[in-house]
């Protein structure tokens, strides 16, 4: 009996045997991959047993249903393509084919979890975890805070926007690229069935999005409808979507208002160059603090880019205000705590810095959470945005 042609598409590109030999986990993805391995080895009965056990645990796993259907049809004779059921919707089959390809790629790329994404330069003490989404691999990675440095914990398959990434406008069905934060937790009781067991709104549009006139809202992490185990890699209206079981597993890692989620076209891994750049940046931040505290307004303003804005004021207006405010003070003390730093995806030489600012002066004292965007201009770090976090 010829093994089904439905997997020829992947077997030409991936060493599936090597890919599947490793994981012994009993999760849904591992069971699916073991089934594909058995098909590759023409052990169709074993493949069918794996799929059956997968469907017992997750009866709404459409990709597994399709694989089982093809395996049953293969018993009657050769089949010519993935999803050979008569009158099967082409768009649905294409989506499931993409899902199978991505899940195989995820297994093949195992080993990258020992590396650190270059986006996570520094976590603050409150940020117990950070999330990084590699949209090219349909994967959400979870990292824990190990004394300010990121250490891999786990990862999940995710779905992104129907038209990919680089969101610019309301309704464009794209997922934004950038540095965001989990804003809140919405329980299932407050949601339509489309969002599954829960949802976590993200802080899109952020300050950089607004500066670039990007519109839209309602970008969430959320689950799947009750009749759906998972969705194809590109199937949402822009949200990042996980299987309900995976969203439940992810929930303990999420802190509303604290957990960063960095969404990138692809993950770049940290390098020695990043270590040097981070040291230069931290020195620039300290010098900015020291110049402000010294009441040297000229030196302080020298840390700001000429195209700086805070949403209300451009650089000229900002400079006038700071000169006026500082002229009325006899002393200033500024301290920074809980500093976090994230390199911005698709924006070389730009980082997002968050900290708690403790400000005291001769006529005013306050404490606030602040966010700055620093950018490398002519080999010097400059502030391009500053405001409350």
Task: Please describe what this structure looks like.
- This protein is an alpha+beta fold and 389 residues long.
- The protein folds into three domains: 104 residues, no CATH class; 153 residues, L,D-transpeptidase catalytic domain-like, CATH 2.40.440.10; 117 residues, Roll (Nuclear Transport Factor 2, Chain: A), CATH 3.10.450.50.
- Helices cover 31% and strands 25% of the residues.
- The protein contains eleven helices and 16 strands.
- The strands form four sheets. The chain has a five-stranded antiparallel beta sheet. Strands 4-3-2-12-6 form a five-stranded mixed beta sheet, with no helix packed on it.
- A hairpin with a 3-residue loop joins β14 and β15.
- α3 runs antiparallel to α4 and α4 packs antiparallel against α5.
- The longest helix is centred in the last third of the chain and has 22 residues.
- The protein is elongated.
- It starts with 7 loop residues before the first helix and ends with a strand.
**H/E element order:** HHHHHHEEEEEEEEHEEEHEHHHEEEE
Question: Which CATH first-tier class of the largest domain would you pick?
Answer: Mainly Beta
- Structural class based on helices, strands and sheet pairing: alpha+beta
Task: Characterize the quaternary organization of these chains.
Answer: single chain
Compact overview of the structure:
This protein is an alpha+beta fold. It has eleven helices and 16 strands.
């Amino acid at each position: 009996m010829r093994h089904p042609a439905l997997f020829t598409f992947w077997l030409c590109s991936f060493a599936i045997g090597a890919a599947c030999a490793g994981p012994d986990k009993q999760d849904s993805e591992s069971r699916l991959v073991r089934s594909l391995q058995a098909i590759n080895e023409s052990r169709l009965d074993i493949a069918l047993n794996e799929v059956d056990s997968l469907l017992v645990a997750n009866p709404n796993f459409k990709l597994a249903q399709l694989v089982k259907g093809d395996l049953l049809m293969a018993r009657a004779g050769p089949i010519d393509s993935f999803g050979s059921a008569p009158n099967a919707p082409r768009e649905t089959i294409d989506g499931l084919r993409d899902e199978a390809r991505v899940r195989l790629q995820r297994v093949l790329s195992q080993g990258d979890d020992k590396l650190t994404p270059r986006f996570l330069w520094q976590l603050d003490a409150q940020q117990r975890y950070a999330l990084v989404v590699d949209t090219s691999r349909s994967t959400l990675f979870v990292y824990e805070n190990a004394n300010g440095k990121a250490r891999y914990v786990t990862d999940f398959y995710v779905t992104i926007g129907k038209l990919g990434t680089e969101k610019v406008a309301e309704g464009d069905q794209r997922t934004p690229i950038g540095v965001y934060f989990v804003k809140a937790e919405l329980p299932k009781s407050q949601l339509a069935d489309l969002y599954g067991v829960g949802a976590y709104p993200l802080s899109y549009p952020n300050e950089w999005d607004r500066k670039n006139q990007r519109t839209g809202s309602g970008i969430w992490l959320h689950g799947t409808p009750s009749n759906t185990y998972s969705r194809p890699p590109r199937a949402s209206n822009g949200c990042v979507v996980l299987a309900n079981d995976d969203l439940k597993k992810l929930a303990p890692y999420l802190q509303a208002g604290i957990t960063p989620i960095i969404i990138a076209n692809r993950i770049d891994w940290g390098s020695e160059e990043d270590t040097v750049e981070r040291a230069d940046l931290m020195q620039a931040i300290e010098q900015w603090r020291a110049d402000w505290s010294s009441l040297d307004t000229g030196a302080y303003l020298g840390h700001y880019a000429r195209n700086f804005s805070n949403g209300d004021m451009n650089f000229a207006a900002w400079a006038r205000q700071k000169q006026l405010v500082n002229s009325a003070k006899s002393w200033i003390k500024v301290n920074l705590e809980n500093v976090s730093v994230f390199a911005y995806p698709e924006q070389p030489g730009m980082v997002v810095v968050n900290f708690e600012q403790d400000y005291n002066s001769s006529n005013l004292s306050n404490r606030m959470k602040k966010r700055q965007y620093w950018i490398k201009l002519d080999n010097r770090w400059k502030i391009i945005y500053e405001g409350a976090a």
